[in-house]
Design goal:
It is a single chain. The protein is of the alpha/beta class and 445 residues long. The chain is built from 13 helices and 20 strands. Helices cover 33% and strands 25% of the residues. The strands form 4 sheets. A 12-stranded mixed β-sheet has the order 4-3-5-6-7-8-9-14-13-12-10-11. Strands 19-18-17-20 form a 4-stranded mixed β-sheet, with helices on one face. A two-stranded antiparallel sheet has the order 1-2. Helix 2 packs across helix 7 and helix 10 crosses helix 11 (237-247). The longest helix has 22 residues, at 34-55.
């Protein structure tokens, strides 16, 4: 009853009819053929380019610098002539990226710190927010959820988690502080969620996994959502297994960012990680060229509904590969074969070979018991440091075991691998546990 009441109350918002229109459009689009979907996203992209050229000072100058107008862009090869957009471009140009036909005071300001803690200020107009909600709704409906269902967010710090605002009650949302991870906090989560019984739990994948482990240890079994949607960091198979077993529901990993909006890609019940190509135009590039299916490349995005502050060919600093086959679910949305994480999670070895830092994580967690948390950092091509936070076993035993398990990953490369123990590994300034990081730039050829 409350779900339908919430949906009815939303109709009083002027933007709600636009949101419903986008929901119907996204529901219909997903069953189109890949070719039809590509044509839809291309036409949306063309409209955005024309708008940016006409109304956004930064892009008018950028088009003039490359000697093109939107009418000249007829193919993806033409589109690739537009320079990539970086975080520094956004920070340095600020209001020049805002559309002059939008009122800045009526747009929503959103400041994100990303993985580094360095602020990045973005603005969103109401039409973008409507599409954002519609994209979320499509991903929830895949698992039996819908707009108006109870959603628990294990996310960044918003306010005192014990206090529920009127707006959260109306929207049927609860926000739990994912920055603070202690048994006492997890017990508070468990008590609240056990009483409130959310339909959907979503948030940081690694924190949800730790919460699921806590629930298993405490034999708490009364939290049964329809789905758990993880995001922000990759969820490993053994973590997914624990989450699904504890909550007795499927896990859908969502690839998103503040810059892109709700969703770049999300998993369907059949396990395909579908790119929401009718919401966000996605390129995967190696050395500036589109990759072939199965080939690693850098993710570059163009959100298709952000007319207030267009971000055209924005560098996500993530590494991914496209699938060569469509998903068995029958949806025509493109599929990511693999999302390997940040470019800063890729280690460039002395020979030039790339090694995904997550490989260390998989080995350490699978073969070495007693580790609470760890961080792996590459200082130089020939220097990798592993820092451990352990439980009770002998430090020396743990260090020797980690070294023994990790050295084979380097395949005899001349790398100095150091392993040490610390009392605590803190979160980053952005409130995340970054497991693998590298100071060495990645080149994808």
């Amino acid at each position: 009853m409350y779900k339908h009441l919430y949906q009815f109350m939303r109709l009083m918002k002027p933007s709600e009819f636009r949101t419903r229109k986008y929901i119907r459009e996204f529901e219909r689009n997903q069953w189109l053929s890949p070719e039809e979907l590509h044509q839809i996203s291309w036409q949306k992209l063309k409209i955005l380019l024309e708008h940016a050229y006409t109304h956004v000072p930064f892009y008018r100058q950028r088009f003039q610098e490359i000697g093109l107008t939107p009418q000249d862009i007829q193919t993806e090869k033409d589109f690739s002539q537009i320079p990539l957009l970086s975080k520094d471009d956004i920070r340095q140009n600020g209001d020049l990226l805002l559309a002059t036909n939008y009122d800045k005071s009526k747009m929503t300001r959103d400041a994100t710190s990303g993985s580094t803690g360095e602020p990045l200020v973005l603005y969103r107009a109401s039409d973008y927010s409507s599409a954002d909600i519609a994209a979320f709704t499509r991903s929830y409906r895949w698992f039996g959820g819908d707009m108006g269902d109870k959603i628990a967010w294990i996310w960044g710090r918003r306010q005192d988690g014990s206090r529920v605002t009127l707006m959260q009650r109306i929207k049927r949302e609860r926000w739990l502080d994912g920055y603070t991870v202690t048994p006492e906090i997890f017990q508070q989560f468990a008590q609240m969620l056990g009483r409130w019984k959310p339909t959907i739990i979503t948030g940081y994948g690694n924190v949800i996994y730790l919460f699921a482990e806590y629930l298993a240890q405490q034999n708490i079994r009364d939290i049964r959502p329809k789905m758990v949607q993880t995001t922000a960091v990759p969820v490993w198979p053994h973590e997914r297994e624990v989450i699904e077993k504890v909550f007795q529901c499927p896990v859908s990993d969502r690839y998103s960012s503040h810059e892109a909006g709700a969703i770049i890609a999300a998993e369907c019940p059949q396990g395909g990680k579908h790119i929401f190509s009718d919401f966000c135009f996605v390129e995967i590039l190696a050395d500036g060229r589109p990759v072939s299916p199965g080939e690693m490349g850098e993710v570059v995005i163009t959100p298709l509904y952000n007319f207030g502050m267009p971000l055209i060919r924005y560098r996500m600093a993530d590494i991914a590969a496209l699938a060569s086959q469509p998903c068995s679910c029958g949806r025509g949305l493109p599929v990511l074969q693999e999302l390997m994480g940040r470019t800063t999670s890729m280690f460039t070895l002395p020979s030039g070979k790339l090694l995904y830092g997550g490989a260390f994580r998989r080995v350490v967690l699978h073969y070495v018991p007693g580790i609470q948390r760890f961080r792996i950092h590459q200082h130089a091509p020939d220097k990798i440091e592993i820092v451990l936070q352990i439980k009770e076993r002998s430090n020396e035993d743990i260090i020797n075991s980690v070294r023994q398990q990790c050295l084979p990953l380097l395949e005899n490369e001349p790398v100095e691998l150091t392993v040490s123990v610390t009392d605590e590994i803190p979160m980053t300034a952005a409130g995340k546990f970054l497991v693998t990081t590298s100071d060495v730039p990645v080149t994808l050829n």
